[in-house]
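Task 17 of the worksheet. Students: predict the tertiary structure of the chain below and write it out as structure tokens. Keep your answer in the requested format; marks are given for formatting as well as content.
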Amino acid sequence: MSTRFLLLLLFTLTAFLSRAQTSNESIDKLILDHFEIYKPELYRYAGLTFYGESKTSFSQEQIKRELELFNQVIETELINNPTKSVFALNHNLLIHSPQKGQDLLALLNKPTDDNEVLSLLFLETLFAGQFGEELALNNLESSNNDWSESWARYLSKNAIYNSSISKINVAIQKSTNTEIQRNLLSSLMYIGSPKSIDFIKQIIDTTKNDLIQTQAIFVYAELTGFYGIKELEKVETVGKKSKSEKEGSLSWLKEETNSVNIYGTEVTNDFDFAMRFGDIKSPSMIWMEGKKLLTNKALKNPKPLSESDKNEILDILTDSKCFGLEAIKGTLFLSVTKDDMNKLIELRRLNYYSPNGYTQGRNKTLGILIRYLKKK
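Model answer:
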């Protein structure tokens, strides 16, 4: 091969890479310019400068332009090296054009060492609801062990759909990675279905791994509550950690649960939040004020809502992307039933509409409510 040919090849490759870089930068700039005109929903409430905004509408012009940008992005290396603006675009698409948003998220869903990109992927996966959780489950099958571990950790705190249980069970049985197995056991706890109890008990009785048995005992206690005490007392532990966990779980079950409060679950209204934001003219706070639910007595000694009031506040919280949940969470705990499950799951998804400093706390509250209903 001649030197001249090699130089020509190098020049051609350099020119190609330069054009690709220019294309990436120009498309990213187009997205940024677009969001100078239209506020990206991902960051709408990030600054907490305005409360209680209800349903967001998109003009046909904005939707058309964002679909055009979608088509441009997927033709560039931004798919492999996405920027924050690409994720902001993805977020808007998930709202007004869900199928396109899912298509883009599926393309962005690939192994990365960039923690910021991974965090944004986690966020979009949460916002994508059940579709997102299916993507997370698929990532467990990756040949990239670090990638599988990342998504097992994600599921350990965020899994919520009963439809995920069978895939998680298979992944636990197939994996030889103790950390992945322990995180996936936690994910079954977060889903909160009693259907997982027999599977967890089988792991407790058959594993020889101290760490795995320890995690399984913890999950078993959470899923069974008061009525798991007798079975847990019979468990033969395989090591120091599992022995300690058995003792701790039994102690907690005997002290904090009983035949009335089977799971030791208690949710109270956030008095401080209500005092801080009670005068904010948002739909949820206006409704609570009108129903006299922001008085000291109502906040500290909540009573169940009527069916119509419960449905009304759940709809208002949904429209307001969860703002105000803290002030009424204890009241909702006494009011919700299994018929409200879909509304709560949707509310949990919309909690990530525009994340802010309250998002994690709201996620925890909604998780508790959902798991409580599943176990009842």
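Marker's comment: The chain has 20 helices and no strands. The chain has a mean pLDDT of 92.
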